[in-house]
Amino acid sequence: MIKFPHTLICSLTALSLLKPFSGYSQTAPPELTITRFSGPSITPSPACLAVAPTGEVYVGVDMMGSLGKDPGKGRILKLVDTDNDGKMDQHTEFAMVDNPRGIIVMGNQVFVLHTTFSSETGKATGMALVVFEDKDGDGKADGPPKPLIEHLSNTKYIQERGTDHATNGIRMGIDGWIYIAVGDFGFHDATDRSGKKLTMLGGGIIRVRPDGTEMEVFTHGTRNVYDVAIDPYMNVFTRENTNDGGGWNVRFSHHIQSGEFGYPVLFQHFTDEILPALADLGGGSGTGALFMSEPNWPEKYNNVPMMADWGRSMLYIHRVKPDGATFTQKEEDFIALPQITDLDVDGSGRLYLSAWDGAGYSGSDNIGFVVRAVPNNWTYKAFPDLAKASVEELVNLLKSPSAVARLNASQELLQRGDQQGLAATLRIASDAQQPLYARVAGLYTYAQGAGKNGIPALLELTKDPSVKEHALRALADRKGLLADVPEQPFLDALQDPSPRVHAAAIVGLGRLDRMEAATALLQTKVPASFVAPATDKEGPHATPNAAIVLPHLAVRALVALNAVDATVSAINGPNATLALWALRYIHDEKAVNGLIAAYKQSKDEKLKKQILTTLARLYKKEDTYDASWWWGTRPDSHGPYYKAVLWEGSPVIEKFMKKEAANPARLALFRDLDARHRMEIAAFAPLKKAEPVAAKEPKVDLEKIKSKKGQVGKSSIEDVLLAVKQLKGDPAKGKILFTNQGCVACHSLSRSEKMKGPFMGQIGSIMNRERIAESILKPNASISQGFATYTITAKGNKTYVGFITEETANKVVMRDITGEVYTVNAADILSRKEMKTSMMPTGLANALSYEEFASLVSFLEKQKK
């Protein structure tokens, strides 16, 4: 049994508080049996895990946590359950790595994503995807790892902050790519094994081949995505967070190759241009992810994305239903686990889950555990040793209803390079009697193994409606083979009645790089839902919109083709809307001149306004990213750029727009365009308005409040927390205390109020009762993300202390403990230091009785907007 110390009860749900671990299984479905697999003596601070198909569990121990900066505290452990009773019997230290963030086990290879450090300075040098080998099977890596990608996160921010927004989970799809979840630190000059370099401003998903080559961006524009779930048909799902201080909401997303999700510069005010998430699920913090597809699991818990949420201490199931080329979803509670970090399943159907269990933002050497979950009627059936399996056995496994079996058999067949086995994979792909999952597995395995020689067979498979989507995807999958792939099947597929086939065709045409495809792409219909949000209103960035998927992908393909001539030619035609949408991202002088010429030719006022909007967007562009600027937990999200700069086409646009604005009756339009797109043309500056009278806020003497001593102040934290557990409290009284105890000085309860410190309007959906109580009593123990206290010194002998409410490349906006707001020019900043203590003083609840404190907690517990 696990006994939880009183100091950790903030990390437990009310149901499991101060109970042995067996009590915690009561929060899981009754169809499952959960056992403790390993405890903190072996697996403290488990940040990630992966399971071999044969059941060996590899756990990434990370005693640095997300904010630690000292190396030498991480390792990969290999755990074995020799008698299959759900408890670890043997363990070995597989390898020493700092900050492990993702693991994949494939044969005798173990892929690991982790932070790298300089042996000379002890400072972080970035992140790397590496591969270890254990050819002798002794449970230890044979030697140092082979790097596959280096510099896979922004070194500047890892050194300053830690890895909390860095690059995270990794998972392999049946297509053989390793998909990598990139947090919004982004990266600069990431380098793969071939020497290819890649830079990404912000977060998303990238992918790479298992040999470390062909690195490329898959999707872009997410915030802090931690892991990916990939289904048997190559649908990719994530549970990432966003929203920048307005509650740290979680979004569930379906990622379609080349898609742009818009964070941070498009996802609020330019939502017409992005792929929206499928849902905004409220406050939380998404972590590990898995698509469960194993035949010995109960039907109602199978073939679903399972997504962990560290902030809510819950593993969720998302019921996804097809909706055009994408999905809709419905979230369900599944398994409660304190600060769950990751999950994976083996070939026998054993699900393993790791729990951070309150180990803190800098890790712990004595907290954290791993559990095993299996269906109640589960019996152990050994997964075969694939290295000893015959080709025939591997081919049969490729038809297995187990996704784990299919993936591992596929990779083993590819490792062997056996031609008979390769021919068998094509037969599976072509066999209409086989289940679709088997045909898809056969198709992608064949495409990987056959390479260029497989193109004719894949072209033939594009004629089969059941696998057409995947044949098109496989044909356009490897850029090194595209010269030999004809575009006609993709052009034909643009007329296919299936939106999924249509989407695959659009993405493929963007990858084929054939300019002749631009005219066909421009015929993609744009729905009525393509509407920009009203001025200064946040648009629907998390509302499913299947109708926007195809035109969105078509725009991304046109931009990839740099289709200047085709888009300009379409401005005055029936496909003008899509053409102008694409032109927003094509900073080319020919595009600018073409837009101006089309404007002069047109007599359609609506079209002319759209052209002006496009020119306003093109007036500036994003600066070339050099890794010295960009990130913050509260970045400027107005858009459309983060660090906007002028370029060669800017003077032409400015001259034209000033001329058109010469008529005073039209000046208001240009002022609106200037404000929305932040052109900062002096002639379009807004009229000065009288400053609104600021609403008076209550002045609270926090020092006086915290100096009072009552029942809470005279008791130990443990006693107070136990009392809160027993006392219900009165939320109505708690609301009054929220004001009287000074909480209103730094916290808002409604989104209509001015945002101050951490938003309390949904705290009850993020923290349970005990965690709310402890965060009041111990404000320095868990400082809310984005609200760390900074001291900034600036030119003119000025010093500012507070938390950062907004940050751009040019300025930092801060709020101090009194609520005052200060704007500091970035060029004036001499030093910036993050403090280790919260701005919230310790002791604000000291004067309260147990009953009063319970009432305050009860009030906050009910805030779940």
TrEMBL record:
GO MF annotations, alphabetized: electron transfer activity; heme binding; metal ion binding
SUPFAM superfamilies to which the protein is assigned, alphabetical: ARM repeat, Cytochrome c, Soluble quinoprotein glucose dehydrogenase
Signal peptide: 1-27
Superkingdom of origin: Bacteria
PROSITE patterns according to UniProt: CYTC
Key words of the record: Heme, Iron, Metal-binding, Signal
Domain Cytochrome c: 729-864
InterPro entries: 6-blade_b-propeller_TolB-like, ARM-like, ARM-type_fold, Cyt_c-like_dom, Cyt_c-like_dom_sf, DUF7133, Haem-bd_dom_put, Quinoprot_gluc/sorb_DH_b-prop
Protein name: C-type cytochrome
Gene source species: Chitinophaga eiseniae
